[in-house]
Structure prediction request, 256 residues.
Amino acid sequence: MAVPILKQGEYLIASIQSAMTDGEALRLRDDLVRQVGRFRSRGIIVDVTALDVLDSFAARSLSTIAHMTRLRGAATVIVGVQPEVAFAMVQLGLAFEDIHTALDLEEGLQFLDSRTGSG
Amino acid sequence: MTTSADPVRIVIVDDADIVSARQQGRETAEKLGLSATESTLVATAISEIARNIMSHAGEGEIAIHMVAVEGARGIEVVARDDGPGIADIERAMQDGYSTGPGLGLGLPGARRLMDEFDVTSEVGVGTTVVMRKWCSK
Prediction:
């Protein structure tokens, strides 16, 4: 199932609804990189609240989204990493060190507003 | 050690099987009474190992058992493939060492998530990973 992407003003919001396969993660990456150009978006939020596992492939896909869309002029913030998922990621050796994260959608929007000077 | 008679077996052929394997692992872990955090660790480890099968061997199988020894209960995951095998296991267990498209976190990462972890491999024959997590309560 493709991850739905909502356009809200200058931002794109991708809410992952259920467990994501590797193929779906790559599709999300491609869709977001394309839509940033189409809608001239300044910011992207990827909501991972529904994910009960974030393994190395998913984490790398999210990092790649952040890096690729930055090159297209948009800031990305990952929101909703669950506490158990955060614990497992750290044990695994993944820390999302080079990408922005926020607790939830609200904080993510605040972060983007402060980055893009809107709001 | 006693092993449950009928393990759950998941054939790993494509990326949807990785998701099924980790969901089955979580289900079994929760059934055993592992905490939400422990179950997440197990599911994440299975995800890494299942992806290793796909990237390196193309296909394989994951079997999930409940195990018991001296009153302790736990989950045992056996991942098997007939792939190219690992020439240098010691190196494959190091962070960041990868011969595939991944981050090189698969084996060492999964080992950190589980309580017990063992890899046997023969070049040209295949690889077997056995990993366990025990119920902490």
